[in-house]
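User: Fold this one for me? It's TIGR04283 family arsenosugar biosynthesis glycosyltransferase.
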Amino acid sequence: MPTPREGRLLNSAEKPPRLSIVVPVLNEALTLAQHLTALQSLRAQGVEVLVVDGESGDDSIRVAKPLADRVLSSPPGRGVQMNVGAQHASASTLLFLHADTQLPEGAVEQITHAMKPHAIKTHAWGRFDIQLSGRSGWLPVVSWMMNKRSRLTGIATGDQGIFMSARTFKAVGGFPEQPLMEDIELSKRLKRVSPPACLTAKVISSGRRWDQYGAWKTIRLMWRLRYRYWRGVSATQLAKEYRNAR
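Assistant: Here's what I get for TIGR04283 family arsenosugar biosynthesis glycosyltransferase.
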């Protein structure tokens, strides 16, 4: 059973945090300090940051300890790691943030507003638009395609900063603990509860995957994998194909 490596627990005199941010990590020591440092102003405003390490072979845990409220250990796999983080979160609203993704200004307030009951439409979950950063000149096009596709389908990717109420997360069974497409499967479950709140503010996420393997090669690969997943191919098989293609 995964156990906390470091952190604090609320006592009866403390208010619960406004938001719990769960950050899954695997060998991110080189850039982790930069991304967690960007969350420190939110911690000062009552936001809880939980880092979940998936058996990193580098110094990710050491880097994270002074910059998070809790550092937890988990078997590797984003779905598994994010479920562990959610189990230990204290807030009523959860945000799942990849280690290479930065939040926009006013993100907490926008999430809070999106999750409030509205007269016309109520959202139990949502995501941000995305802006990929990197060297490739195709990244703005890829970002636009990701945002457009997400709005049309109601499906979000983990890079977009998926958020929801803790109650909704529990009701849908959390992330499926599968090696690929866990964000797609979770979105399908969440769509049965409500449509997503599609926030136009943009998270900035690393485009290193497109830079390293080539923009169009990566686009073709991801669309092929998504299509095959839609056709019923198992996530385990697709994960093997993804690793081989890389």
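One thing worth pointing out: The beta strands are 4-7, 19-25, 47-53, 70-73, 93-96, 101-102, 125-133, 162-165, 197-206.
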